[in-house]
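Thread: iron/sulfur cluster complex, take 2
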Amino acid sequence: MSIDRNIVHLVIKLRPWTMNFPSIVQPETVNFCNAKCIMCPTSKGTKPKGFMDFGLYKKIIDECARNKEYVKALYPFQNGEPLIHPEFSKYIEYAKKQNNQWEVALYTNASLLDKNKTLKILESGLDTLVVSFDGFRKETYESIRIGLNFDQVKKNVIDFINLKKSMNKNNPEVHLVIIAMDKTRGEVKDFEREWKNLADRVEVSHFSNWGGQVDELDSQDILKENYAPCLRLWEHLVILRDGTVSLCCNDFDGRFPLGDLTYQTIKEIWQGEIINDYRKAHLNSDFSSLPICKKCSYRLHQLSLLRKLIFRQVFKKIINKK
Ligand code: SF4
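Output below.
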């Protein structure tokens, strides 16, 4: 047994409550995007494009609120660009109104972040705004984030940060994220230097191969043999726009559905037979029923992500005690 595999087994054993309810819930409010990024398979999705029905969203949030002792974070986005939704702030506000304690975070490409949307976000109660911004140089950025304009996006983010400051708002925290891959690796240091004084946090994230569904764009980081179970099956629930619960965020087209929230509850699905069979398969390192997991680069990085998360939680607790 590898060390990674032993550690992940131990984490799963130490957290038996994760079998009750997911700690991260991610409803997909929009399932299409205004960009065609080279590392993202969203445009290959076969499901009809549109917005999640607000009634379905409410059903999800209301069940989470009844189980708030388990839910730590809500991410109202998945495959699409969430700011395309004309009423995106209504979804954030509803989630924060049901429980102010959980973290509500949004990932965006920031191309649509004009003044009107900025004000809506600043008033919505959103905790974290994560901007995916791949590149320090315009040429690099525009060769990755196809369809977006580097100068416009950069201006949008800086204007957002300045308006937030001028309104004396603490929230949302603004995080800038760059994916380390062949095209960006040489610019990561410049990127960090440029944004560290502007954003609340700058992150360098690992390249994800979406369970083998996109080309490997990072030659330094290709998945070798890895038999560790994936912690996402014990913590994270992703609901696609039409109510299908997909295996995880990499299962962008719902090819491995765990259930359907239009007629089931989160609890039924989370404690159900389908996900439990997949969990058993992972614990036994048997990925024959889940080819997507066999090829997934997420399992390669989950321990470093877990370490970062624990470090952040401990750090937050220390700061809050002072
Ligand atoms: S291994 Fe990858 S594809 Fe499988 S559940 Fe984990 S994140 Fe999803």
